[in-house]
Amino acid sequence: MKFKNIFKNKSNMTTENTEIDQEIDDVTLENNANGEQIIIEELSVEEQLAQDLAKEKDKFLRLFAEFENYKKRTSKERMDLFKTANQEVLLSMLPVLDDFDRALIEINKSDDELLAKGVELIYDKLKSTLVSKGLEQVEVRAGDAFNADYAEAITQIPAPSDKLKGKIVDVLEKGYKLGDKIIRYPKVVIGN
């Protein structure tokens, strides 16, 4: 710790200075830029080493905290990468799911129950595989309030009833999300 005493008036430095010099052991007088004399306490070797140790300890703690933050940040980024690593593959499979949906609608119109049952089994297997990889359907139905954060409006049509004004009239294409991230927004028609 430094002890500073500034004497601005040089005429007062007669007997007072000699008394102070005798009272304080490890003290030196220095001139600052203005020509004033400053009394500075010199630190002992132990005190200097203690200060240096404290500075190094502080540096170490800051570096350690910075490294811990780096580890947490990279770990989080890595987990996010693992969660969305399948995104491109799943996006390329979405048109296949859409085709299955259309095929099931058309096959159910026919009288061939075995064909409908076979296609439905394949569709369910594909869908369960994609769900196991983290794919989820975004739930949007006709009559729900339109929210631009969860759906993409393709067009607006006159609402068939007053209850459907500003709401979803029809869902043209299903939307899907991977974890919490929407990878394809549902395409909807809204009433005005």
UniProtKB/TrEMBL annotation:
Pfam families: GrpE. It is found in: Cytoplasm. One of its GO terms (cellular component) is cytoplasm. One of its GO terms (biological process) is protein folding. GO terms for molecular function: adenyl-nucleotide exchange factor activity; protein homodimerization activity; protein-folding chaperone binding; unfolded protein binding. Signal peptide: none annotated. Transmembrane segments: none annotated. Coiled coil: none annotated. Its main location: cytoplasm. The keyword Heme does not apply. It comes from the Bacteria. Keywords: Chaperone, Cytoplasm, Stress response. HAMAP family: GrpE. Participates actively in the response to hyperosmotic and heat shock by preventing the aggregation of stress-denatured proteins, in association with DnaK and GrpE. It is the nucleotide exchange factor for DnaK and may function as a thermosensor. Unfolded proteins bind initially to DnaJ; upon interaction with the DnaJ-bound protein, DnaK hydrolyzes its bound ATP, resulting in the formation of a stable complex. GrpE releases ADP from DnaK; ATP binding to DnaK triggers the release of the substrate protein, thus completing the reaction cycle. Belongs to the GrpE family. Homodimer. This is Protein GrpE. The gene is grpE.
